[in-house]
Amino acid sequence: MGTHITEPLPTPRTPAGRDGLAALLAQPHTALIGLDFDGTLAPIVADPEQARAHPDAVPVLAALAPKVAAVAVITGRPAEVAVRYGGFAGVPGLEHLVVLGHYGAERWEAATGEITAPPPHPGIAAARAELPALLDRVGAAHGTWIEEKGFAVAVHTRRADDPQATFDSLRAPLTDLATRHALIVEPGRLVLELRPPGMDKGVALRDYAREIGAESVLYAGDDLGDIPAFAAVEKLREEGVPGVLVCSGSEEVTELADRADVVVDGPEGVVRLLGQTVAYSAP
Predict the structure, then answer these.
(1) What is the pLDDT of residue 142?
(2) At CA 235, angle to CA 38 and CA 153, rounded to 5?
(3) Other beta carbons less than 10 A from residue 187's beta carbon
């Protein structure tokens, strides 16, 4: 594995973060490790279909998963896509890994290889059908990319001539479209996602932590969609469950970095931190 793990673990900058990390390292078998996928385990790329997990991610997770209660990859992507792009299927050591896709609406369990999911929200198909005409009408058809997500649909602006201006110009019309179809808009790093309300990473993380009886939680994310998961960890801390908030650093999103206990340098830093956690946690 290319990542060095002999250096000391970073010291969280808040007392709650330090307590969370200490609890995780002392009793790893009761800990939940929650991880976003894009921007956290996988580098951000212009074409979301080309996203792949960092080369060291699977080896590190395979070493970490047997030591903890569970590793949960929580993503807006379909679970099957995250499993494929992550390379998580059939890996020895990953039996304690789950992928909560579509913000928890879908679940893939490594132990069984099966996906469970409810039927899609009807508003997604209706909104998707209107998107090409909407993009053309507001002059944003060139350079934008519509990503089909089953339980959601996303418009990416990273390929546009002016990605940020295109993103800004689309927020209002896409919000109107979402509202008409009983959906919400989730902004991200040069992406606007239309999805059903009530689905977010905070709900997914909190529900799964309760399900497995986690006694400590670490969550790592990089984008605005991870803020609900940060809030869920903060709420769990208020309830007596220690937790650590990790930001996979990005100059595009500062809200998470300002709120995090630990900021690392993108997926490379996340993988290094997880490797250090393996090295320094109790047997």
Answers:
(1) 85
(2) 35
(3) 17
- The CB-side HSE value for 185 (13 A sphere, CA atoms) comes to 20
Q: What is the pLDDT of residue 2?
A: 44
For residue 136, indicate whether it is catalytic.
no
- Output DSSP code: residue 46: S
DSSP class per residue in 133-157 = HHHHHTT--TT-EEEE-SS-EEEE-
Confidence of residue 4 (pLDDT cuts 50, 70, 90): very low
DSSP-H helix ranges across the chain: 15-26, 57-64, 79-86, 122-137, 163-180, 201-212, 227-238, 255-259, 266-280
Give the pTM.
Answer: 0.81
H or E segment at 191?
strand 191-195
Question: What is the model's pLDDT at position 3?
Answer: 45
> Residue 100: which residues within 8 A CB-CB, separation 6 or more?
72, 73, 74, 75, 79, 106, 107, 204, 208
- Residues 186 and 179: their CA atoms lie apart, in Å, by 12
Q: Which of 69, 73, 42, 71 is nearest to 215 (CA)?
A: 69
Instruction: Give CA–CA dist 265/68, Å, rounded.
Output: 24
Q: 48 near 149, Cβ under 8 Å? A: no
3 state DSSP class of 91 = coil
Q: What is the CA radius of gyration of the chain?
A: 18
Helix (H, G, I), strand (E, B) or coil at 49: helix
Amino acid at 152: A
Rounded-to-10 torsion of CA 260, 103, 49, 266: 10
Catalytic residue selected from 36, 200, 222, 223: 36
Cα(42)–Cα(220) distance, rounded to whole angstroms? 12
